[in-house]
C-alpha cells in the first residue's frame, strides 16, 4: 500500500500516519519527494481493508493499493492452469475446448431432449438449461424449478452429457447439486456472497459469471470466496458488461480472456449469447472467443426461438449451431485446441 | 409493442408475424411506411416477455416495447405519493425529510451508542448500521451478525430512533426482521430475486438500493418484485452508478430523483456516502440531493473514521455531520420540507 | 511515479529499471516489500509521459503516477478561486451566481430577441445561442453561421447581456471572437487540441464543456492547453457524461462540482439541459447544481420548443424558466450566492 | 417515427400532434391502444430532427425513431461491400486482410525506416506513424509535424508501403494529403465535423476511428459526413470504448465487427493496441479480431518501446510482431482471407 501525503502536509501529520501504519502491523518506509511525501506500508495488505481508512487522517491525499487482493485465485500462488473435471469424462482448462449448449430455460421434456440430442450431434459436450430463472420482471416465467432439474437429469441419462444449471438461492444449493454436474452462478449473483460461500463448501464445479458492472479484480475476489471455503473447481465466465452501446445487449469484453489468463489459473469460458443478445451475432463472437484463447463456450440453442419463454432473440436454431460448430472446430485447431 | 419489419420483407413474412402476434392474444395493426412496415401489437404487454422472441421470425428487424413493464410501482396505478410509516413515529414520503445516519458496520456497544446519540442530537431520525456486511473480499470483516443486531436494538431503546440494517441472505430475513424497523437490500442484491420475494411477504418497510449497473426501469422492476408479493412499503435509494470516472467511488445520478418522482409513487432516498466514497464530498451532495427533491438521506457517520472496519474514507465525523445538518435544514426549507 | 516490479523479478531487472529512471533525470528510491519491490521515481513527472513507457521493461508489473499531471489549472499553483470578467459588468467565480440562458440555435431575429428579453427579465445575465452547430447528422440544421453571430450581437445591443456562442473550427475563432463575449467549446471538441491552442492565444473568456467520456483529470488537462498558451480565463462546464442509463440523455455528474472546486481555481458551470435532455427535469437539476456549489448555470430556453430546429425537448419555455428562476434565487441564497 | 401519447392524453392533444406532424410533411396513422394511443409519422424522417421536438407538445410521452438516420453508409443503399484502393496496389474490403503497422509517433529517420522494413518483412502492407499527435497533456511530445510527414514519405519510397497518418486540424488537411496515402481521423475527432467535411472533399481514403463514447449509430453518422461530401473511400476503425474496467486502457468492442458488417458496406479495421493499452494483450486480440471477420488490423510496433515518446506500453517489438503475424495468417485462412 502506498500512502500519498498532501502537498504541504507537515511533520506531525506524517508522524501520525507512520504511527498508525505500524499499529496495524506494517513496516513503514518514507520517500521524500519534491512536492510531497509518499509512504510505503510494507507487509501483506490483503484482507486488511482497514488500511484504506487511513485516507481519513489529516494530511493524507490518497491511499493506493499495490498488491492484488486475491490469493488462491492468483497465478502467484498456483502457476499451472487448473484442469477441472466436469463429470462424465469431460474436463475443462486443458487442450479440449468445451462447448456447453442448450436452451435458456427448460420448458418441456420434448424441448430439452430434442435440444440435447442436437447439440451433442454437433459437438457440444455439456448441456445447459435453466430451471430457476432470475428474471427482471416478476411477471415473467420463473422456471420449472425441480421439475426442470429432473428433465435435465433425464436428458443427461439419454445423451451422456453432463448438465450445467443455475442456482439463485442458497436454500436450493443442495437440491440443485443433487441433479446438476456443474452449478452456475448468474451475473446478477456474482456478489451474492451468501450463495458463494455455500457453493464453496460443495464438491461440484461452479461456473461463475461476471456481473454486468464487475471489474476483473472484483470478479476474481468473488471466485476467491468460493476457493476460500475449500472448493477449488471454479470456472470463470465472461458474458458481456454493461456500457453505453445499445446495438448489442451487453458489450462482450474479450480482452478479459488474456487478462484473466495472466492473473489466474482458473479456466475461462465465454458466453456470446447473453453478451450480444442476438443470435445472428453469436457465431462471429464464438470464433473470436476461441481465437482469443478461451477454454470453452456456453451457447443458447433452442429448437424454436420464436416460441422461447425467455431469451428467444439470442438463441440459435440447432442447424445454425451445427454450422457454427464446423468453423469453431477450425478456429480451435489454430488456437491449439480440439473439441 | 411495436414490431419493425426489415426493409424488403415480403407479404408472407408479414402475415406470419401477424398470425403469431394474434396467437399470443394481441390485436395487430399494420402501418405501411415508405421503406418498411411497422406492426403494433395491441394489448397489455407487461409480463409477456415472449413477444420479444418475435425478433427471431424471418423479416423482423426489431421489437420495440412501448409500455413501462411495471404496474404496482407506477404512477399510473397509484397517483398520490406513498407515505411510509417507519416505526417510532417516523414516516417518509411526506413533508418531513428523513435523515438516516450511523456507521457502515456495527463494531461495538460504545461505537453504536456514541454514534446514535450524536446523530440524533444533530437531527437524524433513523439509525443505520450494518450487522451482515457484503464485502468484496472474503478476508474482510463480515459483520457482527446477530450480536450486531442486538446492539442496534439496544441503541434504539436508548435513543428512540428506529433502526435500518441490511439483510443479504433469504435465510436471515426473519432474524433481521425481529430486530430491525427497516430492512435494507444492498446494491449487490438489487436483482437477488429470491431475497426480494421473501421481503415482499414481510410486514416491515424495505429500503431497496439501486445496483451499480441497474437502469431506472430495472430498479422499478426489482421494487415490483416486493410489491407484487404484497409488501407495499418500499423505499427506493439511489447510491451512485458505475461509470468510467474514478475521482469518485461511483457517480451519483441525482437526475434519478425527478425521473423516479415522475414514474413512481414510492419515496426516494439518496446515499451520498457510497456514491462519492469520500467524506469531504458528502455535504455538497447531500445539499444537492435535498434541492433535487429527495425524501431522505442515508449518511455514514463514524466516531473515528480512520479506525473504521469498513468504509472509513466516506464516513463523516459526528461534528462534521452536525454542521452539515444545519445547512441541510436550510436547503430543505427552500425545498418545502422540514426535518 | 511509482514503479511496481513483478513478483520474482531479479536484481538485474531492478538495476536496469533504476538505470533507466536515472537517465530520464529522476532520483530513484527502492522499497523492498515482502513479495515484490517498488521503486519511487523522484522528480517532477508532469509532462514526461515517457516514464509510462518503462512498463515495457522486463520485470516491471505496472507504473503508477502519483502527481496530478496539470499545473496551471491546479489549486497547488493558485490557491484562491479565479474570478473571471465576462464583459458588460458580469463576472463569474465570485459571489454572484451567473445564469446563461437562451436557445440552442439562433433561428431568427424575432426568436433571439424575444428570448433575450425574456431571460433577462427573469434574471439571466448572459445570453446563449448557437450559430455554428455541431450536429450528429450531416442532414440536420448546421446553424446560421455569421448571420447568427450578427443576430447575437444585435440582441446584446438591445438587452445589454454579454453573449456566449460556440466555435467548432480553429479557422472561425477570429470571426466568432469578433462577435462573442465568451467562446464556448462543446463537449465533442473537449480534446480538439488544435482548437484549444488557438483559444489559448485569445483575449476572451472560454467556456470549456466536459466531453461525454472525459474524466475530470482529462478535463483539467484540456483546460491546461488553453491556460498554457496564456489565456487564464477558462470556465469549466459539466454537461452530463455518457453512461448505460437511458432515462436521461446523459448522466449529470454533480459530484464534479466539489471535486473540481478542490482541485482547481477555475469557476464551474452546470448545463442541466444537455445533461438531462428533457425540459421537465431541468428545474430540479438546476436547484441541485446550485446547492452543490456551482458558480453558474447554462440553460436552454426557447419561445416555442416544439418548433425548435434543435434540442426542442430539453428547452424550457420562457414562463417555465421564469418560475424556475424564483426558486434558483432561494437556493442560491442558502448557498451563499446572489443572482 | 413513433409518437407515444401519455396515458390519459385527450382528443385535443392528439389532434394537435397530428396537425403538427402533417405540417412537417408526414402522413399520420393512429393506433388506439388499451391504455394509450400511439401515432406513426410516415415519411422519410432522416435529417428531420425537428420531429424529436414534438416531445415538447402537451400529451406526448416520448418520440421513438424507427429508421436508421444514415443513408449513404447503409447496406440498404449499397448492398455489396466497398473495396477501397489504398494506393501502391493495396486494397481493403475484399479477400485480403490488410495489416497496418508502425510506431505511434514518427521520431527519427532511423526509427521509422527500421520499423518500416521490419513490419513489411512480417507481412504488413501499410505503414502507420503519427506526425501530428493529439496528446492529453500540452506538455507531452506533440509530433514532428511536416518533418514527420517527410520521413513517412521517405519510408514509403524505401519500402513501397503506402502510409497512413493522422490529421487533427482542418487547416492541415491539404498538407497531410500531400504526403499520406490514407488520412486518419483519431478517436477524439470522430465528431469534429469541420474536419470531417474537409476530408469529404478530398480524393484520398479516410480511416475514421470510433470515439471512446461513440455509439455505432453515431459512428456511422460521422462516416456519413464524409460520404455526403462526396468521398466514398471511408474505412471504419474500432479501437476500444470507455467503460468502468481499468485492467485494459479501453474495452475492445469486437461485436462492432458483425454489427457494422450488417449495417454498412464500409470496411472495418480493428486497433488492438489502443484498445488494450498493453503490448502483451495485442496478439490475442488481433487473432480474435480476424476471427470476428474484420478487414484489417492497425498495430503499434516500435523498435524500442521503453524509449518511445508515446504509447510505449502498447507497442510490440518487431520480433513479437513477426511471431504474431504467423498466427494471424493462420486465423485469417480459416476466416477466408489471405494476407
UniProtKB/TrEMBL annotation, chains A, B, C, D:
Name of a matching Pfam family: DAHP_synth_1
A single GO molecular function term of this UniProt record: transferase activity
Keywords per UniProt: Transferase
Keyword Transferase applies: yes
InterPro entries membership: Aldolase_TIM, Class-I_DAHP_synthase, DAHP1/KDSA, DAHP_snth_FXD, DAHP_syn_2
Gene Ontology biological process terms from the UniProt entry: aromatic amino acid family biosynthetic process
Domain DAHP synthase ferredoxin-like: 1-68
Keyword Kinase set for record: no
Domain of life: Bacteria
Chain ranges of the DAHP synthetase I/KDSA domain: 84-328
PANTHER family found in the cross-reference section: CARBOXYSOME FORMATION PROTEIN, PHOSPHO-2-DEHYDRO-3-DEOXYHEPTONATE ALDOLASE
Protein name according to UniProt: 3-deoxy-D-arabinoheptulosonate-7-phosphate synthase
Upper lineage: Bacteria, Pseudomonadati, Thermodesulfobacteriota, Desulfuromonadia, Desulfuromonadales
The gene coding this protein: aroG-2
Amino acid at each position: 500500500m502506498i500512502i500519498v501525503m498532501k502537498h504541504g502536509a507537515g511533520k506531525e501529520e506524517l508522524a501520525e500516519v507512520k504511527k498508525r501504519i505500524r499499529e496495524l502491523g506494517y513496516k513503514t518506509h518514507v520517500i521524500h519527494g519534491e512536492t510531497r511525501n509518499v509512504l510505503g506500508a510494507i507487509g501483506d495488505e490483503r484482507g486488511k481493508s482497514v488500511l484504506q481508512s487511513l485516507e481519513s487522517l489529516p494530511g493524507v491525499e490518497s491511499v493506493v493499493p499495490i498488491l492484488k487482493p486475491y490469493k488462491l485465485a492468483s497465478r502467484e500462488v498456483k502457476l499451472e492452469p487448473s484442469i477441472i473435471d466436469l463429470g462424465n469424462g469431460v474436463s475443462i482448462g486443458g487442450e479440449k475446448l468445451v462447448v456447453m449448449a442448450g436452451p435458456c430455460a427448460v420448458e418441456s421434456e420434448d424441448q430439452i431432449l430434442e435440444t440435447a440430442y442436437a447439440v451433442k450431434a454437433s459437438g457440444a459436450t455439456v448441456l445447459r438449461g435453466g430451471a430457476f430463472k432470475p428474471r427482471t420482471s416478476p411477471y415473467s416465467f420463473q422456471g420449472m424449478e425441480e421439475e426442470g432439474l429432473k428433465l435435465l437429469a433425464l436428458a443427461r441419462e439419454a445423451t451422456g452429457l453432463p448438465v450445467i444449471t443455475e442456482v439463485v438461492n442458497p436454500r436450493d444449493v443442495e437440491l440443485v447439486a443433487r441433479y446438476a454436474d456443474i452449478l452456475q452462478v448468474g451475473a446478477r449473483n456474482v456478489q451474492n456472497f451468501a450463495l458463494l460461500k455455500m457453493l464453496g463448501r460443495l464438491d461440484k464445479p461452479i461456473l461463475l459469471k461476471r456481473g454486468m458492472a464487475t471489474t476483473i479484480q472484483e470478479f476474481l475476489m468473488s471466485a476467491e470466496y468460493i476457493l476460500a471455503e475449500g472448493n477449488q473447481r471454479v470456472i470463470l465466465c465472461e458474458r458481456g458488461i454493461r456500457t453505453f452501446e445499445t446495438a448489442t445487449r451487453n458489450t462482450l469484453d474479450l480482452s478479459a480472456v488474456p487478462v484473466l489468463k495472466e492473473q489466474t489459473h482458473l479456466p475461462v469460458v465465454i458466453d456470446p449469447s447473453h453478451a450480444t443478445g442476438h443470435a445472428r451475432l453469436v457465431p462471429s463472437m464464438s470464433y473470436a472467443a476461441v481465437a482469443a484463447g478461451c477454454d470453452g463456450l456456453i451457447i443458447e440453442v433452442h429448437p424454436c426461438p420464436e416460441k422461447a419463454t425467455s431469451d428467444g432473440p439470442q438463441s440459435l436454431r440447432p442447424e445454425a449451431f451445427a454450422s457454427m460448430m464446423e468453423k469453431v472446430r477450425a478456429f480451435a485447431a489454430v488456437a491449439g485446441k480440439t473439441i
